[in-house]
Design a protein that fits this description.
176 residues, alpha/beta, 6-stranded mixed sheet, 3 helices, 6 strands, flat
């Protein structure tokens, strides 16, 4: 003979399971602990460029400003009005061939960008730094120099976006 579970017991069991499983799984990211809570605004001056690749500092700076603006955890402002400043230096950018055609011409390159990032508060106190934030991308080259240069620029843009995301995540989510 089977006993029937009372309706109230079923509801209580379901309610307990809902509360147990509600704490599991994904959650929305929150502002991490790498920057003090008092930091409400950041300035991002143009990164210094110690490489021979002209203009990459502008792309990386713009990508970081965009990434910081997405979450709304801080306001991007001028240096004079900011609670802290993100200083960056692109220390290296290099390309090297990684794939060759039958006639031994390079058909694919790897680009690697590396930079140093320091965050200081308005009094000059160092809040966070990483001396080696880097990213790499591969891109194809062809006999058309304009298409090859466009592929290289796309790789540069992708690296800038990835580095900006790394900096953001390390500052606010505590990922390393």
């Amino acid at each position: 003979m089977r006993t029937r579970v009372q309706p109230l017991a079923r509801w209580l069991t379901a309610l307990v399971l809902i509360f147990v499983f509600a704490g599991c799984g994904y959650h929305l990211p929150r502002r991490g602990h790498n920057l003090p809570v008092r930091i409400k605004s950041l300035a991002v001056p143009v990164f210094a460029n110690k490489t021979f690749e002209a203009g990459i500092e502008d792309g990386l700076t713009d990508a970081l400003i965009l990434e910081l603006s997405k979450t709304g955890w801080v306001i991007v402002s001028d240096v004079e009005q900011a609670d802290a400043v993100v200083y960056g230096t692109i220390n290296s950018f290099r390309t090297s061939p990684i794939s060759f055609s039958i006639s031994e011409l390079a058909v694919e390159y790897r680009a690697v960008m590396s930079c140093k990032v320091v965050v200081e508060d308005s009094s000059g106190h160092k809040l966070w730094n990483d001396p080696n934030v880097s990213e790499r991308r591969e891109y194809e080259v062809t006999s058309d120099p304009f298409a090859s240069e466009a592929a290289k620029q796309t790789a540069l843009d992708q690296m800038a976006a990835a580095i900006a995301e790394q900096i953001h995540d390390r500052l606010f989510d505590g990922f390393y």
